[in-house]
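Quick log. Single chain, no ligands specified.
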Amino acid sequence: MVDAARELTQKGFQVLPYCTDDLVLCQKLIDVGCEVIMPWGSPIGTGQGLLNKYNLRTLRERLPNIPLIVDAGLGAPSQACEAMEMGFDGVLLNTAVAKAQQPALMASAFSEAITAGRKAFQAGVMLKRQTASPSTPTIGQPFWHQSVNKT
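-> predicted structure:
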């Protein structure tokens, strides 16, 4: 794959490789001139979604200036939303829409999910935590019973 990409880019083609989520492979494709990388979420046509979220997040973190498009394996709009929340630049769809009982409605659902995911990424999704942490201060609230020091 890398040799073919090298040859094609040297001949002036813009190569948009469909590949696995392997960081080393993706970096090699960039090194030979690919300007966009299209890793799979899962094997094509499976609808399994983002099988290796760790690898996909690593790609986004390590390749911040490269357009990344999840290409293959998505089956539900929520999976596309999650890819966009992770900072991917887009998703490529076919089977999820083509195999839906109502393809036009499914395409619309994916469109809305992609928009929502992108907005969430731009807004800055909160970091996950291991422990509870209230976001609303409780001191000074009417439901909070404070002891008052009367001296």
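The mean pLDDT is 89.
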